[in-house]
Amino acid sequence: MDPLHDWPWLALALALPLLALLLRPRPPGAPPRWEDPRWIINVGLPLYMLHQFEEHGVDLLGRVYSFQPAFCEILGYHQLDRCPADAAFVMAVNVGAVWIAFLSGMIAGPRRAMVGAAALGIPLVNALMHLVPALLRGAYNPGLASAALLLAPLAFFGLRGLVRAGRLDRRRIAVVVAVGVVTHAALVASALLRARGLLSHGALLGIQIGLGFVPLAVGLAVGDAERGPAGARP
Question: Which structural domain range is residue 189 located in?
Answer without folding.
Answer: 3-23+32-222
